[in-house]
UniProtKB/TrEMBL annotation:
Tagged with keyword Hydrolase: yes
Key words of the record: Endonuclease, Hydrolase, Nuclease
UniProt keyword Hydrolase, yes or no: yes
One GO CC annotation: cytosol
Homology family: Belongs to the HNH nuclease family.
Highest taxon in the source lineage: Bacteria
Species whose genome carries this gene: Terribacillus aidingensis
Classification via Pfam families: HNH
Name the UniProt record assigns to this protein: Putative HNH nuclease YajD
UniProt-listed SMART domains: HNHc
GO MF terms, alphabetically ordered: endonuclease activity; hydrolase activity; nucleic acid binding; zinc ion binding
Sequence ranges assigned to domain HNH nuclease in this UniProt record: 21-77
Signal peptide, first to last residue: none
Amino acid sequence: MTEYKTRQQKQRFYKSGPWRKLRLVALERDNYECQQCKKKGKFSKGQNVHHIKEIYHHSKLALELDNLETLCINCHNEEHKRTFNNIGTKKGRKVWRDERW
């Protein structure tokens, strides 16, 4: 079974032919629309294909169409907790400050 634990393993996966083909299928299925925005009654073009169940923990679902959804960049960042409010909250990182001096 293939694992996607390291950065190199994930990069290799996301550059692979099977992923690129399946990604296009997911984008076309969702009509290039962000599915999270759509649930909120908004419209946003989606460019990111997101694994609902992360490949780090569920490597068997990496190439399953039912495990994919199209998201805009903002919703994708929210799913991965990469919002402005979370900058610097990991252990060992400095807290973001607007003033740098």
